[in-house]
Amino acid sequence: MSTEPLHAGESASLINDPNATETPWRLPSQRKTGIACLIVTESALFTIFVVAYLFYMGRSLNPPYPAQVLEFPWLGSIALFSSSATIMLAEIMLRKVNRFGFLIWWGLTIVLGAYFIYFTATEWMHLIYGKNLTISSNVFGSTFYALVGLHLSHVFIGLLLLSTVWLLTFFGKIPKDHHEHIEVVSWYWHFVDAIWLVVVTVVYIISVNY
Amino acid sequence: MFDTIIDPNFKAPEPERVGEERVSLTRIVQELVFTVDHKKLGLMYIGSGLMFFVVAGLMATMMRLQLAFPNGKVLEPDVFNRLFTMHGTSMVFLVGMPIIFGFANYLTPLMIGTRDMAFPRLNAFGFWVFFFSGWLLYFSYLAAPGLYAAGSAPDVGWFAYSPLTAKAFSRGHSTDYWTLSLLMGGIGSVATAINIIVTTLCLRCKGMTLGRMPLFVWVFLVAAFLVIIAIPPLSACQIMLIFDRYLGAKFFDTQAGGSAVLWQHFFWIFGHPEVYILILPGFAIANEIVPVFSRKPMFGYPIMVAATVMIGFISLTVWAHHMFTVGMTSLGNTFFVVSTMIIAVPTGIKIFNWLGTMYGGKIRFDLPMLFCIGFLFQFLIAGLTGVMLSVAPFDWQLSDSYFVVAHFHYVLIGGLLYMVFSGIYYWYPKAFGRMLNAKLGHWHFWLFTIGFHLTFGPQHIAGFMGMPRRVFTYEEGRGWDLWNLLSTIGVLIQIPGILFFVINLIYSYIKGKKAGDDPWDAWTLEWSTTSPPPEYNFAKLPEVKSRRPLWDLKHPEDPDWKFE
Amino acid sequence: MRLRGTLLSLGFRVCGALCALTAPAFAEPAGLEYPMRRVAHIFQPLSRPAEMISEAAYLVSLICLGVFLVVAGLLVFIMIKFRRRAQDDGREPPQIYGSTNIELAWTVIPILITVVLVLVTSRTIGEIQNMKMPEDALKIRVVGHQWWWEIHYEDLGIVTANEVHIPVSSRDPAQATPTHIVLQSADVIHSFWVPQLAGKTDLVPNKTNDTWLDPYETGVYFGNCAEYCGTQHANMLLRVIVHTPEGFAKWVASQKVPPAAPQTAEEIKGHQLFYGYACINCHTVDGTVAEGVFGPNLTKLMTRQTIGAGVAELNDQTLWAWVNDPQGLKTGCLMPDMQLLDPEVDAIVAFLKTLQ
Ligand code: HEA
Ligand code: HEA
Ligand code: CUA
Ligand SMILES: [Cu+2]
After folding, report:
1. How far is the centre of ligand 2, averaged over its atoms, from the C-alpha of B417 (Å)?
2. In this predicted model, which residue has the larger pLDDT, B212 or B148?
3. Is C11 on the interface with B (CB under 8 A)?
4. Which of C198, C225, C252 is the endpoint of a domain?
5. Distance CA C96, CA C102 (A)
6. Which region, left, alpha or beta, applies to residue C287 given φ > 0 means left and ψ of -120 to 50 means alpha?
7. Is B558 on the interface with A (CB under 8 A)?
8. pLDDT score recorded for residue A7
9. Do C224 and C294 share a domain, yes or no?
10. Do C57 and C167 sit in the same domain of this protein?
């Protein structure tokens, strides 16, 4: 047994197998792993709000009920879902190192996201002032605004990220090593889209039966 | 920073350098505030956790004094209720969580042979968010009605069942402090957990495949996954509660069709995995200490990994065993009985594998191992009382009684806290370059162990005799008097035990025996660098070929990698 | 079956004796109608559901004790046998990395134990939860309040508080007369727990639960609220008085007699004060304009053993103290200090004492 102390510099020689062959050592990307973890957490968060929504479906003691006030958000949904496509196109442009194309598609994504927020804002105005549905009206109001609002806040954060990327690209260049940053932002955006699919299904398709 | 403090060649400053000394004190603070070094952050986590432990422990002492005799007159009812709420909340969120994050932070990069966590600044963010969430919680004592009447700390219990937390039943802002503090702390926890996962997956040194990671790292990986899955439900229900309290939402408003049981589901979907988040690090530390002090590799490494992952999964499905009394259907009850009991199997595997590791070894009873043995005994008892609780009909009697209090203190103290002590005795030499004093350590161990069993052993019987928990007083003649008195005496024995520990930490820092790089003759990478490790951990990143790289180095004739 | 029975009763005895040992003799007032069962040990069940529970509990405890003895024994053995000895040669022990067979063994054995536990448990759950109440079972509705119990006998037209009166049943299932208890809450969650009679069940607002009692012996059984419900959770005590069938009939009859009208000048003054002050906003006295439901029904106040949900035995002093300042007796309770003058308190107490 060796009793000599091991010093920092020596750690490199921890393999004492003379026949050790050089094997390539590849590890997953930090940013991607990080964003994947973030997406897992966020999914757990959304799950709880979705469950709360489903649990309280049909349990409001007083109107307004979903069937009376909800209208399918066609325009908003189309905008948001198509933004997933535009962001993919932007990424393709990025891979082709086409800065202009990237700015266009990425910019379009931002516009579509912003339109979604505008659309929801008008919808909420209508619900609050037109239909008297507020967060304190009944359990439907509480769960509705909480779930849709949580998603909306994610769209908002996503927009901030997207705009940052756009501005940086507009004023500078896309350095090659920032490709991954951009990819990670687009993952997040796809996630926000996917959540909307769930929210739309639960809120505007299932719960309007109540 | 720490190496300068413990520099053995340090000489008293020359007269003209006194001013500089003072400057360096502020520099220490400055460095603590600005540091992103995983080792410093780790120690800061553990240090602030221990600080909150003493605070919350003193709160427990006050509760025990009130309960020593029937019709106790030491505390007002509300003061008592605040104490157990703050005690429970602090112990779980401000003691347990930061200490385990501290261990993860300090050791993960060292054990997997890298220089820092994946996101050092996120790491600092996580620490400070936790730290201020603690202060936010305690600020409630000063806020609202003011200092007289001991302020208005939350008094809703650590799981804050609705609708007790609704505006109607909890006036003032105490509950808001509780909920905001937990929401904030949750964000910090998730940030740190993501950091741990990414570090583990993306920064392992060359040759360290998943199958060669130290079990410590494995277990923390699983615990971190549990954190990112289990904390969001907690945050979600805090958000709902905030909406209820501030915007008049109806989530938990039972007058408006809201459900009181929903909060319980959401809370325990977090709460049960949380208790495994707390105990898994205990297992992690045992995974390092048992082999080293038995001088054998871990018995059945792959099945240990499998058991850990299984515990992680199953613990997500058992939450409603905290709710056997709310009136679930018999089918629902049975489901949660089954899932809860299944957890005994992978947990049992762990215990048996530790025994298998010790079997045939040459066990050294140094302090880390001593605490570890205490852990094995106490966790066994606690696990078995857990199984008793998981028998739903039995739980109808035991739930919310002192038996539950005894159960969870046996897991949390007998399990987690013992392993925290064990881990501190084990890694203190690495962090500070000096051994903890063994004599003081033995006093700590024996006093604390005797006190601990005396405190919480009798509570099992009080529970059998129908004593409910969270009562600020109880009547005479119900057969609880003796058990409560014993329990209080036990705390008075625990206190000197903890004092010996605190003294030891300080004394050994100044006067402790020099440790050297590898005092325990151990096998994982952290022992291959200096004690304390340099800022960059390793001058040259190591490369490994087996689970016990230092064993390979020390035993070139019989290296591990030939057998794995 | 015989063996199991003997084993069980032996176990109960041992546990019971252990607890009795620790319970100091408590001076009970003389001349009680029924024994006071203050020391309520869950292993001394005196009611069918509690007995079913304790049988399962006893079995589970034995299994756990067995597991403990085996594993702890193994641990001690290993610690002694494999400790490093003083004359150690300094060589490392043989390095063993694992053994599939052994690991399989200690996976399978716990699984088998778990299967046994699951079977026992699910059977007991079913037996207790899915028990069919006889059509004519006495039905009682208990409503939890911060921090007292409202008790309704809807079929008998009786409302009372804090003390549940039921008739004794029989050990023979064929002759049993179980009592069905419906549990609701007016504010936060509470839990109904009388250890010797049944396991606890929560009273949840906006949800109706139920449980049942089937007591074998008469007596006054002690229980508590077992879910933290705020400041005075500790003093939300509960008593179940199990009568002989005749005794129960007598109690029911007594509850239906309206209280005598106040006679003396003092009583009449108290009566007026009671209606003059806000008391009637919160309390009901049947047959009068006092119809408040925020506090306990006081119609038959003096037939109760305790005041303030068990915070004190009911007698002249405690009644006086309560009316004078409930906060002094039960800090934080929801009955305010009515700021009465001493003579007013005297009068009101005199009136309250007619409520029997
Ligand atoms: C570190 C924390 C921790 C851990 C690890 C555990 C572990 C377990 N707990 Fe515990 N528990 C708590 C912390 C913890 N608990 C807390 C804090 C509460 C109360 C919260 C509150 O109300 O405030 C609680 C409450 C609690 C309840 C609810 C009680 C109630 O309020 O009504 C239940 C019920 O099922 C339960 C069960 C279990 C079980 C079955 C395990 C199992 O995981 C134990 C498994 C281990 C073993 C079984 C021992 C080793 C195994 C063998 C040797 C194999 C052979 C054995 C058999 C096959 C039996 N716990
Ligand atoms: C990690 C978790 C943890 C730990 C370590 C502890 C530790 C202790 N707990 Fe705690 N406890 C909980 C978690 C924990 N508890 C939880 C979650 C609850 C539930 C809360 C709820 O119901 O909402 C609870 C509830 C709880 C109760 C039940 C209250 C009730 O229901 O009414 C009691 C009662 O005895 C108690 C006692 C103790 C005691 C005596 C200790 C002791 O071990 C503490 C020992 C420590 C000290 C005594 C500190 C002494 C130190 C010094 C004196 C050093 C001084 C030095 C300097 C100043 C330099 N605890
Ligand atoms: Cu009612 Cu506790
Ligand atoms: Cu649990």
Report:
1. 11
2. B212
3. no
4. C252
5. 12
6. left
7. no
8. 38
9. no
10. yes
Distance CA B560, CA B548 (A): 7
Give the tens place of pLDDT for each residue, A118-148: 999 999 999 999 999 999 999 999 999 999 9
Tokens of B186: 């949750």
Which chain A residues are closer than 8 Å to B540 by Cβ?
Answer: 8-9, 11-12
Q: What ipTM was predicted for this assembly?
A: 0.92
SS3 C292: coil
pLDDT higher than 80, residue B219: yes
Question: Is C53 close to B337, i.e. CB distance below 8 A?
Answer: no
In a domain, B3, yes or no: no
Domain that holds residue B210: 41-563
The band of B4, judged by pLDDT with boundaries at 50, 70 and 90, is very low
Give contacts of B 140-199 with C, CB under 8 A. Answer: 155-157, 161, 163-164, 168-169
CA-atom Rg of chain B in angstroms: 24
Q: How many domains does chain B divide into? A: 1
Contact check, Cβ <8 Å, B529/A29: no
How many whole angstroms separate alpha carbon B560 and alpha carbon B555? Answer: 9
3-state secondary structure B237-248: HHHHHHHHHHHC
User: Does B202 contact chain A (CB < 8 Å)?
Assistant: yes
* Domain coordinates in residue numbering, chain A: 28-56+75-209
Judged by CB atoms closer than 8 Å, whether chains meet at B118 and A29 is answered as: no
Chain C neighbours (≥3 Cβ pairs under 8 A) are: B
Query: Is the beta carbon of C233 within 6 A of some atom in ligand 3?
Result: yes
- CATH code, domain carrying C296: 2.60.40.420
Q: What is the DSSP string of C184-251?
A: EESSS-EEEEETTTEEEEEE-TT--EEEEE-BSS-EEEEEEE-S--STTGGG-EEEEEEE-HHHHHHH
Please give the Cα distance from A121 to A145 (Å, whole number).
12
Q: Are strands C209-213 and C306-307 parallel, antiparallel or unpaired?
A: unpaired
pLDDT for residue C110 is more than 60:
yes
Task: Indicate whether C298 belongs to any domain.
Answer: yes
Answer whether B251 sits within 8 Å of A136, measured CB to CB.
Answer: no
- Taking the Cβ of residue B250 and every Cβ of chain A, the question of whether any pair is shorter than 8 Å is answered with yes
**Count of pairs with CB atoms under 8 A, one residue in A, one in B:** 171
Contact criterion met (CB below 8 Å) for C221 and C242: yes
Is 90 exceeded by the pLDDT of residue B14?
no
Give the mean pLDDT of C287-307: 89
Do both C271 and C196 map to the same domain?
no
Facing residue for A28 by CB, picked from B202, B206, B256: B202
Full domain range(s) for residue C245: 1-83+131-252
B449 C-alpha to center of ligand 1: Å?
21
For residue B466, what is the DSSP state? T
Task: Say yes or no to pLDDT of A22 above 60.
Answer: no
Verify that C158 and C235 share a domain, yes or no.
Answer: yes
pLDDT value at position B12? 43
Rounded to 5°, the CA angle C170-C171-C177 comes to 35
B497-535 pLDDT, tens digit per residue, is 999 999 999 999 999 999 889 999 999 999 999 989 998
Q: Whose CA is nearest to atom 45 of ligand 2?
A: B57
Domain co-membership, C34 together with C70: yes
CB-CB: which of C41, C206, C331 is closest to B254?
C206
Quick one: pLDDT band at residue B145, thresholds 50, 70, 90? low
Min Cα separation A65/chain B (Å): 14
Residue B367, pLDDT score: 95
- CATH class of the A28-56+75-209 domain in this structure: mainly alpha
* Domain final residue pick, C252, C280, C306: C252
One domain, residues C78 and C184: yes
For CA atoms C177, C178, C184, C185, give the dihedral sign.
positive
| 8 Å CB contact of B243 and A142 | yes
CB contact under 8 A, A44 and B203: no
In a domain, B408, yes or no: yes
Q: Is B552 on the interface with A (CB under 8 A)?
A: yes
Number of domains within chain C = 2
Specify the ligand 2 atom closest to the Cα of B417. Answer: 5
Chain C touched by B267 (CB under 8 Å): no
CATH number at residue B500: 1.20.210.10
Convert the pLDDT of each residue in C186-219 to its tens digit.
999 999 999 999 999 999 999 999 999 999 999 9
